[in-house]
Amino acid sequence: MSVETQKETLGFQTEVKQLLHLMIHSLYSNKEIFLRELISNASDAVDKLRFEALAKPELLEGGAELKIRVSFDKDAKTVTLEDNGIGMSREDAITHLGTIAKSGTADFMKHLSGDQKKDSHLIGQFGVGFYSAFIVADKVDVFSRRAGAAASEGVHWSSKGEGDFEVATIEKAERGTRIVLHLKSGEDEFADGWRLRNIIKKYSDHIALPIELPKEVAAAEGEEKPAVEWETVNRASALWTRPRTEIKDEEYQEFYKHIAHDFDNPLSWSHNKVEGKLEYSSLLYVPTRAPFDLYQREAPKGLKLYVQRVFVMDQAESFLPLYLRFIKGVVDSNDLSLNVSREILQKDPIIDSMKSALTKRVLDMLEKLAKNEPEQYKGFWKNFGQVMKEGPAEDFANKEKIAGLLRFASTHGDDGEQVVGLAEYLARAKEGQDKIYYLTGETYAQVKNSPHLEVFRKKGIEVLLLTDRIDEWLMSYLSDFDGKSFVDVARGDLDLGNLDSEEDKKAAEEVAKAKEGLVERLKAALGESVAEVRVSHRLTDSPAILAIGEQDLGLQMRQILEASGQKVPDSKPIFEFNPAHPLIEKLDNEQSDERFGDLSHILFDQAALAAGDSLKDPAAYVRRLNKLLVELSA
Fold first, then answer.
1. Residue 398: per-residue pLDDT
2. What is the 3-state secondary structure (H, E, C) of 482-494?
3. Which residues span the domain enclosing 401?
4. Where are the alpha helices (DSSP H) in 75-159?
5. Residues of the chain with pLDDT under 70
6. Which H or E run includes 17?
7. Which residues does 261 contact at the CB level (< 8 Å), separation at least 6?
8. Global confidence as pTM
9. How much is the pLDDT for 116?
10. Do both 118 and 70 map to the same domain?
11. Could you give the number of structural domains in the chain?
12. Residues 479, 543: one domain?
C-alpha cells in the first residue's frame, strides 16, 4: 500500500447526502444494477482517454490496450472494478465524487418526491450512477491517477456513505481508476465469478471494449497460488456495427441505458447503416420521460459521435435540430476525420447532409410510433410536445411532417387532453369545410367557454383549443396543413365560407345595415378604446366580444413579450356585438348618452375579461357597475 500524504476529511454536498440515504435504503429495486453503472462510468473514462489521446498520444503511456477488469475476493468480501481510462486528479475526485457534478444540483433536490420509484428515475438524469455502489457496499475505496500526471499524483478517495469522505495523495504507477467495494453483510453473492459474469452479460455485453474477469488455472509445480489469467466476458464490439437481425430488443434497451444514463427503457429506437455517397451508422432513441433540463435550450445535448468506431465527442449537437434535443443515440461516420472539432462540425457540408437524413429518420420513427402505438405516443406528447412545437419555426423543410405529429385539445373532447392530430381533425371536418379553426388562450377552461366558439357550437364545427404559452408563436409559422389554411376564430372578420348558407349571409347583411346607427353610437362612446365596431356573426348567447385585428399580436404573444421586457406594439381590439341579445336591444333603446356610455364601457370590459385580458382601468369598471346596480335597486 502506498504511503498516503495530504490526507483530509471533507463533507459531502447536501444533495449527495440525500442521494446516499436513498441509495443505502435500497432505492433500486434491483441491486445488481450497481455493476452496470460502474462499468458504464469506466467505459466513459476510456472513451475520454481515447479522445484526448488523439491530440496527445503520450497520454496512453505505452498502454494502448484499453479495457475494464472486474475481480472479487470471497474472503475479504470485496468486488474490484478497474479501468485504464482517463483517471482522476485529486481535484477531480473531490469534485466528481463529493458533489453532483452537473448543472442544476438544486434541481435534483427540487425534483425528489420521497417516492422511491419516482426518485430512482432522477439518478441517471443527474449523472450520479457512481453512488449506486453504496447499494451493496458499506465502504467504497477509489484509487485513481489522471493520464499524463506523475505517478506521485495518484489519489485515494474513501467513504462509508455517511456524511463525509476522506481524500489523500498516493503513489499510483498506472493511469486510470480502481474502485474497491467492501460488501455489506448479506451481499456476499456478488463476490462470485459466476454471478458477476452473468450481470456483465446481461447489462454490459454491448460495451465496445473488453470487460475481463479472472479465470483461475491450475498452479504450476512448486507454486502456492494458481496463476491468474484474464478472459473477456462481453462481446466487446460496438452494438451499432452489428446487423440488426442479430441484436435483441433487450440489447438495444441496455445500450440505451448506458449512453443515456437512464433507468427506463426507451419508447422507440431506429438503427440504420447508410452506404454510398456518405457512409455512417446511426442508432437513435426516443426516451420515455423528459430530462430535467429539457427546456434549457443552452443545456448540453446531442448524439455521441464516433469516427470509425473511435469515440470523438460526447454531445455533438450538430447532427439534429434543437427541437429534437431530447433524442439520444450514437452516430459513427467513416467520412469525418478523427481530429474533428465542434467548430469544424458546424461548417462541414457532410454534417448538413447527415443532419437532414437523421432528422427525417427521427420524424419517421415518431410517425410510426403515433400510428402503431397511439397510447405510447400520447405519453411521448405529454413529455416532449412543447419542444416539438418549436419545430415548424426551426425546420422549414420538414414543416408538414412536424405538423402531422402535433397534438391539440379541441371542442371534440371535454377533458383538455392534447390528443387530436391535424389529420384526424380534417378526417371528421364538416362537408364543405376548407379551414382548420383554432383558438388560443391562457387556460383550457377559458378557451373552452369562450364566446368566440358560440357559432361553432351551433353549427357543430370542431375548433382546436391551444393553451400552451408557445402556441400563438407556433401558429405564426403554420399557415396550412394538407392544403387547408389555419384560421384563428378570434382574429379578423370571421368568414365560415361554404359552412354559411346564402340565406345566413343575406340575413347577416340585412342586420348589419339595420344596426348602422348603433354601430356609430358605440364608436363614439368607446372612442380610442377600439379600432372598429361591428355586428358580430360569431355570437349566439353573449352580448359582445373583442376580436383581434388580422395583423395584431394576440394576448399570448403580448404577455410573452411583456414578460421578457420587450416593447409591445400598440393595437386596439375590434368590438363586436350580438344584435339579438337583450342587453344590446336595451342599449339600442337607451336615450341618455351618459348611461349609454357607461353601459357600452361595461360591455367592453366584460368582453375583455372573457377573452382572458386584464382591464386597463379596473376602478372605472367597478364604479360604472356599482352605479348601474344602484340604479337598478332604486
1. 95
2. CCEEEEECCECCC
3. 388-496
4. 90-98, 105-111, 116-125
5. 1-2, 14-15, 18-19, 21-29, 99-128, 216-226, 338-346, 562, 634
6. helix 14-24
7. 40, 124, 125, 127, 129
8. 0.76
9. 52
10. yes
11. 4
12. no
